[in-house]
């Protein structure tokens, strides 16, 4: 008997396909049950340890995407003004020829550097990177900066590795401290399951957030913090840990550079000082430091996922990683670990198109990353929220063509109005999407990609304690005139004279290209949909074998990356300013049944959560005469929105909160059109200029009842 819960489905012509979910980027392994070329059920891959059949609501709702009449069905070329919704249906040849001709014109006039591509990093990113390099442009962008750019830089400044190289061993932890890492709503399925297991085994959870989230309600200890003051809390925790000698002296002596500088720096940061800043009682701070150290080294100060809240984000994220280092929890079971790839398991890594010899691109990036003014953000991702600024200012040069692939910059870069002005300056805007994103709606050409259930993608090398390979396979044939992205890129490249960098003619050829020399073949995926390359976790020896990638070979509290580029390792603490009278800080986030800006029009998910609401503290609401469920106007100096109030005691009085992704303007997305308000319309495009993330929660708003 098959171990699938769908086994009892009475399917004639039954097929079970192992694949990878793409309702969000977490990429959980799934099985898709197919009957007569239609998807009947999707569930988690039961063979994968830590997943064991689980799927989240969004993963199951992938079924709703497949036969959706509001999907993109054919290539479209715009015929009316931007946003007028006037399109001409085109063949693939017409649409691709049109784009190639425009790109060639723009290249001739402004140079290859004026062509940019922005995408949500995905399994085919080695293909899009190759495309941009082969064209001769430096301007390849991912979403990374908007999500976790400052965390990436923080990790590089301490360990020499990006955050992508790091994981948390929640399953074996004894105590985990989350700072607004709302793990039970902003999901990573495997991690949620690991955490639940650890909690059943007695692990403690401390949750810190100005808002009582679902994760807060599951925690052993919830601490309501004043928005934007977590750094003060961490400095006080370090103060207590150092003063009471709670740190792991042997580990710190071997692996940490700069303890004395830290000690001097946090000396004045007493728990009483932090209490005034954060609103968390001093005794709670002392207790937390002591309890965390009792659990060490199986303790995790969770460094977060989205790290794009405030302008000092890099220093906050650094402080979290330093707390782990002080308690010796880096590279240990139940703590934080460095992910190992195929190479660490003694195998040859997957081959990427970017391994080819590609033309060297010497131009500076249009976002300034890599120049002395903006040296630290990761140039392999760029800083995408600087793109609208660069387009508008034509500084350092004009950017005239933008291709977006699986990314919606209009909604995912703060300040909608400014983004719109930037897009209007482009001579060519192309969206590769599966539905009318907000950006697609204003594009010149829309290329419809087949959805993940209809297509395969490049094989995934999943690094971890036990590296493994996963594969996304088509489960059904495409419903409409759509194509997979890897094919779209190749077809476009051929028209631009760079086809030779895409040496595949089919999905199988692409897969075999990747697998070459690894000793692994496509057949190895047949039974379970993945290939394990090792059966035991790989840890580096904590006594002497941690391969840190910093110049000193240590965890650099005093950071050569920062200081060699003119930034301090320990800048003076600057308090975030409280909102001016009559204003609130606008906080944003996600919840369990929606993905960013992708799922608001999904037929099942839009039924579950059709709009967003504005969380507002009860006393503040009463003062403003706002009643539960009433429509309110939220206004910032950048824009406004109308939304229903959710009046509650469960949020700090300085803040209001809304889900990201609502307040949509595309009429052809009828299930979410005009529902709720958009955070992007209210936010200001301000960044952490050291780490690279936008400060999405920098903005203050007013709230008033409507009518
Ligand atoms: N204002 C504001 N901005 C934010 C955030 C916020 O909270 N507020 N959050 C930030 C964070 S953490 C992140 S990660 C980013 C995410 O930013 P985005 O990547 O822009 O958001 P997503 O919703 O993940 O996906 C964007 C687009 O991908 C399309 N898509 C989905 N599946 C496919 C597919 O298979 N193929 C193709 N071609 N397209 C597909 C969707 O239809 C959607 O239009 O946004 C960041 N920006
Ligand atoms: N269901 C679902 N799951 C997802 C995603 C999704 O779209 N949907 N997206 C994935 C992605 S790309 C990301 S980046 C992650 C995001 O995962 P998280 O970073 O865990 O989640 P967010 O929803 O962005 O929520 C941020 C939380 O921070 C709190 N917060 C705001 N200000 C402060 C502050 O000053 N201090 C503290 N301590 N807390 C504060 C907010 O109240 C909110 O609860 O989720 C991932 N998982
Ligand atoms: S968390 Fe949910 S939506 Fe995201 S990949 Fe996993 S099952 Fe799919
Ligand atoms: Mo994210």
Feature tags:
707 residues; alpha/beta; N-terminal domain of TfIIb; Dimethylsulfoxide Reductase, domain 2; Barwin-like endoglucanases; seven-stranded mixed β-sheet; six-stranded mixed beta barrel; 28% helix; binds ligand MGD; binds iron/sulfur cluster; binds molybdenum atom
Short description, anyone?
Its cofactor is Mo-bis(molybdopterin guanine dinucleotide). Belongs to the prokaryotic molybdopterin-containing oxidoreductase family. The protein is α/β, with parallel strands linked by helices and 707 residues long.
Task: Write a structural description.
The protein has a seven-stranded mixed β-sheet with strand order 5-4-17-16-15-6-7. The longest helix is centred in the first third of the chain and has 19 residues, at about 90-110. Among the domains are: about 1-65 and about 450-485 and about 505-535, N-terminal domain of TfIIb; about 165-340, Dimethylsulfoxide Reductase, domain 2; about 585-705, Barwin-like endoglucanases, CATH 2.40.40. It is built from 22 helices and 27 strands. By secondary structure, it is an alpha/beta fold. Bound molecules: ligand MGD (2 copies), iron/sulfur cluster and molybdenum atom.
Helix and strand topology:
Elements: E1 14-20, E2 29-35, E3 38-44, H1 57-60, H2 62-66, E4 76-78, E5 87-89, H3 92-110, E6 115-119, H4 125-135, E7 140-142, H5 144-159, E8 166-168, E9 175-179, H6 189-200, E10 204-208, H7 214-218, E11 221-223, H8 230-243, H9 249-255, E12 256-257, H10 259-266, H11 271-278, H12 282-295, E13 299-302, H13 313-326, E14 336-338, H14 387-393, E15 401-405, H15 409-412, H16 416-424, E16 428-433, H17 438-441, E17 445-448, E18 460-462, E19 468-470, H18 485-495, H19 507-515, E20 530-532, E21 555-556, H20 560-564, E22 584-589, H21 605-608, E23 613-617, H22 618-624, E24 631-635, E25 640-648, E26 655-659, E27 700-705
Parallel strand pairs: 6-7, 6-15, 9-10, 9-13, 10-11, 12-21, 15-16, 16-17, 22-26, 23-25
Antiparallel strand pairs: 1-2, 2-3, 4-5, 4-17, 8-14, 18-19, 19-20, 22-27, 23-26, 24-25, 24-27
Helix pairs in contact: 3-18, 5-13, 8-11, 8-12, 8-13, 11-12, 14-16
Bound molecules: ligand MGD (2 copies), iron/sulfur cluster and molybdenum atom.
Molybdenum atom binds near residues 147 and 306.
């Amino acid at each position: 008997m098959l171990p699938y819960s769908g086994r009892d489905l009475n399917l004639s012509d039954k097929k079970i396909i192992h694949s990878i979910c793409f309702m969000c980027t977490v990429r959980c392994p799934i099985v898709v049950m197919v009957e007569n070329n239609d998807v009947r059920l999707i569930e988690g891959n039961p063979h994968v340890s830590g997943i064991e059949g689980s799927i989240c609501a969004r993963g199951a709702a992938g079924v709703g995407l497949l036969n959706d009449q509001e999907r993109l069905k054919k290539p479209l070329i715009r015929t009316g003004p931007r946003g007028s919704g006037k399109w001409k249906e085109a063949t693939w040849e017409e649409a691709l020829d049109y784009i190639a001709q425009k790109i060639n014109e723009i290249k001739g006039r402004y140079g290859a550097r004026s062509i940019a591509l922005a995408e949500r990093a995905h399994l085919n990113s080695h293909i899009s990177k190759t495309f941009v390099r082969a064209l001769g442009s430096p301007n390849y962008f991912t979403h990374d900066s908007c999500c976790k750019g400052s965390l990436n830089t923080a990790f590089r400044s301490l360990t020499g590795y990006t955050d992508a190289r790091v994981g948390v061993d929640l399953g074996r932890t004894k105590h985990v401290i989350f700072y607004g890492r709302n793990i039970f709503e902003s999901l990573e399925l495997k991690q949620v399951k690991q955490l639940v297991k650890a909690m059943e085994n007695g692990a403690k959870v401390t949750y810190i957030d100005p808002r009582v989230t679902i994760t807060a309600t599951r925690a052993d200890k919830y601490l309501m913090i004043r928005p934007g003051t977590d750094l003060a809390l961490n400095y006080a925790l370090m103060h207590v840990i150092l003063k009471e000698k709670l740190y792991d002296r042997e580990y710190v002596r071997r692996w940490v550079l700069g303890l004395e500088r830290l000690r001097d720096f946090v000396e004045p940061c007493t728990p009483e000082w932090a209490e005034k800043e954060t609103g968390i009682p001093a005794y709670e701070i002392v207790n937390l430091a002591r309890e965390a150290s009792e659990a060490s080294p199986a303790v995790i100060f969770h460094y977060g996922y989205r790290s794009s809240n405030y302008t000092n984000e890099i220093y906050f994220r650094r402080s979290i990683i330093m707390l782990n280092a002080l308690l010796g929890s880096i590279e240990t079971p139940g703590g934080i670990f460095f992910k190992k790839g195929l190479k660490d398991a003694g195998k040859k890594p997957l081959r990427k198109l970017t391994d080819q010899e590609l033309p060297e691109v010497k131009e500076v990036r249009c976002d300034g990353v890599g120049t002395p003014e903006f040296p630290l953000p990761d140039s392999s991702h760029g800083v995408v929220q600087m793109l609208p600024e660069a387009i508008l200012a034509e500084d350092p040069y004009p950017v005239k063509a933008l291709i977006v692939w699986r990314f919606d910059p209009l909604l995912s870069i703060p300040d909608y109005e400014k983004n719109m002005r930037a897009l209007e300056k482009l001579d060519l805007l192309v969206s590769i999407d599966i539905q009318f994103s907000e950006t697609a709606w204003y594009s010149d050409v829309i290329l419809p990609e087949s959805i993940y259930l209809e297509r395969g993608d490049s094989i995934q090398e999943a690094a971890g304690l036990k590296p493994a390979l996963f594969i996304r396979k088509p489960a059904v044939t495409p419903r409409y005139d759509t194509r997979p992205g890897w094919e779209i890129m190749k077809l476009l490249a051929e028209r631009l004279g760079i086809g030779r960098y895409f040496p595949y003619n089919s999905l199988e050829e692409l897969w075999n290209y990747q697998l070459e020399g690894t000793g692994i073949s496509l057949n190895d995926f047949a039974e379970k949909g993945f290939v394990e390359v090792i059966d035991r976790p790989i840890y580096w020896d904590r006594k002497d074998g941690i391969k840190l990638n910093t110049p000193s070979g240590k965890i650099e509290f005093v950071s050569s990356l920062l200081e060699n580029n003119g930034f301090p390792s320990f800048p003076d603490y600057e308090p975030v300013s409280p909102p001016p009278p009559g204003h609130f800080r606008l906080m944003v986030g996600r919840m369990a049944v929606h993905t960013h800006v992708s799922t608001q029009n999904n037929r099942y998910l839009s039924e579950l959560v059709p709009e967003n609401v504005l969380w507002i503290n009860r006393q503040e609401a009463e003062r403003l005469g706002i009643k539960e469920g009433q429509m309110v106007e939220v206004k910032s100096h950048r824009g406004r929105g109308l939304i229903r109030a959710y009046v509650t005691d469960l949020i700090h009085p300085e803040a209001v909160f809304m889900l990201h992704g609502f307040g949509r303007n595309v009429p052809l997305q009828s299930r979410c059109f005009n529902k709720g308000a958009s955070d992007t319309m209210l936010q200001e495009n301000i960044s952490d200029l050291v780490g690279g993330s936008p400060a999405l929660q920098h903005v203050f708003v007013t709230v008033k009842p409507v009518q």
